Amino acid sequence: MGALMHEFVTVFQAVLPVFILIGTGFVLRRLGWLTDVADTSLLRVTINVMIPCLAVDSLLGNPAAAVFGNVVWAPVVGFGTVGLGVAVGLLAAKWLPSAHPAGRRTFAFTVAVYNYGYIPLPLAVSLFDQATVAVLFVHNLGVELALWLFGLPLLTGLDPRRQWRKLLSPPVLAIVAAVLTNALGADRWIPAFAREAAHLLGQCAIPLGMLLIGATVADQLPALPWSKGFETVAAASLLRLGLLPLLFLGLGWLLPLSAELRRVVVLQAAMPAAVFPIVMARHYGGDVITALRVVVATTALSLLTMPGWIQMGLRWLTP
User: Fold this and answer.
1) What CATH number did the domain enclosing 184 receive?
2) Is residue 94 part of a domain?
3) What is the extent of the structural domain holding 210?
4) Cα–Cα distances in Å, from 255 out to 136, 200, 231, 249, 292?
5) 34 located within any domain
6) pLDDT digits (tens, 9 = 90+) for 82-119
7) pLDDT tens readout for residues 150-204
8) 26 occurs within a structural domain
9) What pLDDT is stored for residue 243 in this prediction?
10) How many domains does the chain have?
């Protein structure tokens, strides 16, 4: 019992700084020190500069990113877990009594897309090693593909093939370029000063991203009619923080995955819903209120559920 409690406390201590950063962003927004005027430029710099630098810094010369099984299985697992979430979400949405068709589709999509970047990245760094961080980035290629392939039809009915350019984002291009560089053995040709610059910029990505998530939550909370939507919140929490983690861990146990990829599966299984579906719902005509309810509820509750799922997953999937 003492060993179990020690493991739980260790995981909880790794999770807590992430939520402290999110809470700091929330407070900064409420104080007016981090204004919404700055959001667009900060988000653009984070996504287009800092995250690609973090990906390059983590992947270049990392042996785990050159293992064929990781390069193949990691994106397949990322894509498949989002697809599984969409299927489960659509089935569950049929039983939501107050949801209209757009709300049901938005519910399914938001439940399916877990927070695959900002929260698991610092956890991978603090709990594991650079090999796991590298595999996490490769895994996220599959999530990015699923994000647009499933998200656009669900929210708009548009053919995702017409939006293929959105897949060519700077983070995706950086991950692909780094993996190819490793495969060709060209990583040793990159000057040390360039890699150090990428390292310094990459270290800014996680804290800034966490602050922006907290600020976004602070903006959206007043818009939520908390007197309604209990069914949505309850169903989303049970699926995203209950059933889907079990299914993810089951896949991790059944599939022939490396130790690093199993750790990634454990982290992603424990994640709440991602924030980006709120942006997509607003931009593509989805139900923004439903997306907000799912994201805010699962993010808040995950502080309690995340340590337990990570602890259980590590005991189950890693020797």
Assistant:
1) 1.20.1530
2) yes
3) 54-317
4) 17, 36, 34, 10, 33
5) no
6) 999 999 999 999 888 766 888 889 999 999 999 998 78
7) 877 777 666 656 666 666 778 888 888 988 898 888 888 889 999 999 999 998 9
8) no
9) 97
10) 1
Is residue 249 within 8 Å of 269, Cβ to Cβ? yes
Specify the length of the chain in residues. Answer: 319
* 200 in a structural domain: yes
**pTM for this structure?**
0.86
Query: 193-208 as b/e, with b when 16 or more CB fall inside 10 Å?
Result: eebeebeebbebbbbb
State how far the Cα of 151 lies from the Cα of 282, in Å rounded to an integer: 12
pLDDT number for residue 245 = 97
